[in-house]
Amino acid sequence: MTTIGAAVMGGTTRRFAIVDDSMRPTLQPDDWVIARRRRNMPARGDVVIFTHASYPDWTLVKRVIGLPGERITVAAGQIHIDDRVLAEPWADEPLFPESHDDVPDGSVWVMADRRAVSSVDSRVLGPIPIEDVGWTVVARYWPPRRAGRV
Questions:
Q1: What CATH number is associated with residue 143?
Q2: Where on the phi/psi map is residue 106: left (φ > 0), alpha (ψ -120 to 50), or beta?
Q3: Where does residue 28 rank: exposed (0-12), middle (13-18), buried (19+ CB within 10 A)?
Q4: Which of 135, 143, 115 is nearest to 4 (CA)?
């Protein structure tokens, strides 16, 4: 699970510390990121920050895979969105077990980039209500050698 620490920068911007490795290589432990308060529906591929429904003290960071109204199917180690294979340049591991899930209105489907080590994403939590998604990660600023857009 990717839990993160937060520090307030302003009303619409916040910085977060990454503390585990489920989003490798995009985000790694000891990375610091800047996120903007979410105002619109996130896009597929966005990295978002949300609170865990059962544990409100836990803040998680994952990637948006599925959008409202879509059917997410895992088959032959790949993700299919409405029967089309999802190109995932951010993930490099096959995905198992096979499953079928529908994303209801007002929700998104999120997953870690490093799925073999992630213990909490939509495969366990189910769809994430959009009102629980508070932030969209826009950049990594620390360490300086890894700084840049996410």
A1: 2.10.109.10
A2: left
A3: middle
A4: 135
Residues 6+ positions from 84 with CB-CB distance below 8 Å: none
Cis peptide before 127 (omega within 30 of 0): no
Task: Enter the pTM of the model.
Answer: 0.89
DSSP of 6-35: EEE-SSSEEEEEE-SSTTTTTS-TT-EEEE
To which residue do tokens 């998680």 refer?
60
Which residues span the domain enclosing 91? 4-149
What are 97-145's pLDDT values in tens digits? 788 999 999 999 999 998 877 778 898 899 999 999 999 999 999 999 9
**Share in percent of the chain as helix, strand, coil (round to 5):** 5, 45, 50
